[in-house]
Amino acid sequence: MEIKGKNSIIVKTVALLYLLAVLIWQSAVLGAAEKEPSKESQQIVTLDFKLLEKTERYVTDDKADLKEIPKTILALNGKKVKITGYFLIPSQAYYVKEPISNFGVSKNAYGCPCCSWGNQPTIFNTVIVDMKQGDVVEPPFTPLVEVIGTFIVKKEQFADGAGEKHLNTLFYIKDAQATKKKQSFLESIF
């Protein structure tokens, strides 16, 4: 059916106004998206050491490499995460009492091997932390620390004296903020 005369002009005008309204609405939405960070970019994912430890089952027989990194971990690469763990710093930092901007956060603290908190940290349950430019953690250092920053999965290897390769580091948090956490007496025992 063909529209003629005044009806044709009205239909074309309404269609043009509709398209114009859609374009204005889309530009407003896109402009707002550029001004405000999306909710997804603001979301902070709580990272669990148990998830990171799942990577250990993918180690090659010679322990020099990984067959793969689980997709659940790779999905967090580049995302903002939060993790709470034991503060791992070089022992000289306790004596020198200087602020630090690089440290490790681990599921386990160094300590008594008979206690659950005393198992040695491994590359599968430790995250290397680099603070935001200019930020530091001041002494006195507490056992626990909460870190928020950008999670990076990066497999690094090193060669020992015999030239054999070994996994060195897997997980990082860059541009981090850290908050020292207090630990209750019961938490320190159990």
Q: How many helix segments? A: 6
Q: How do the strands of the widest beta sheet line up side by side? A: 2-3-4-6-5
Major sheet size, sense and barrel closure: 5 strands, mixed, barrel
Highest CATH level, the class of the largest domain: Mainly Beta
Low-confidence stretches: none
Explain how this protein is built.
The protein is of the alpha/beta class. It has helices at residues 6-35, 39-42, 49-53, 71-74, 91-96, 185-189; strands at 45-46, 80-88, 102-106, 126-131, 144-159, 165-181. The protein has 2 domains: 1-36; 39-189, OB fold (Dihydrolipoamide Acetyltransferase, E2P) (Beta Barrel), CATH 2.40.50. It has 6 helices and 6 strands. It has a 5-stranded mixed β-barrel. A hairpin with a 5-residue loop joins β5 and β6. The radius of gyration is 26 Å and the shape is elongated. The protein starts with 5 loop residues before the first helix and ends with a helix.
What is the topological layout?
Elements: H1 6-35, H2 39-42, E1 45-46, H3 49-53, H4 71-74, E2 80-88, H5 91-96, E3 102-106, E4 126-131, E5 144-159, E6 165-181, H6 185-189
Question: How would you sum up this structure in a few lines?
Answer:
It is built from six helices and six strands. The protein is α/β, with parallel strands linked by helices.
Please supply descriptive tags for the structure shown above.
190 residues, alpha/beta, OB fold (Dihydrolipoamide Acetyltransferase, E2P), five-stranded mixed beta barrel, 6 strands, 28% helix, 29% strand
